[in-house]
Amino acid sequence: MKNRWSTIAAMLVLAPIFFVACNSSNGGGTNPAPAVVAPADTTPTQPYVTHRGVGPWAHWAPPEQPRPVYNWHSERVREVTCSARDSHGVRFLVIERDYKGLEFRDVIVRIEDSAVDRCYANTHGDVGCRFEECRPGY
């Protein structure tokens, strides 16, 4: 019985030393402390006004995504704002004002693609860029 208590006492004395050795900053042990990483800034970028649904960015052919079906009062639409989001959550906005009313139905795909192209160009090739949404301005 005495031998058992001396073993437990030795473990209690040595446990803090072992714990410090395993978690030291010099890489010891198998359970290092996690790295401290600042959260990414996910503030939307300033909107860019496109012309005829095209921006100054090269067209990127992203993986195919389902396109939304818009249920807007098309005849009253005066501008469309589309957004894409990169893999860090940053939104890239484009605004199209060159068309009025029903004309937007013919160019909406180009405006959606322009938002994704802007995301891809401004993130230097983040393949996580995905189309997010378009909203009408009346």
Distance N to C terminus: 85 Å
Average pLDDT works out at: 78
Structural class: alpha+beta
Q: Helix and strand succession? A: HEEEHE
Proportion in helices: 25-40%
Features:
2 domains, alpha+beta, globular, 138 residues, four-stranded mixed β-sheet, 29% helix, 2 helices
Report on the structure:
By secondary structure, the chain is of the alpha+beta class. The protein has two domains: 1-37, no CATH class; 48-137, no CATH class. It has two helices and four strands, in the order αβββαβ. A hairpin with a 5-residue loop joins β2 and β3. The longest helix has 21 residues, at 2-22. Mean pLDDT is 78; it is low at 17-24 and 35-39.
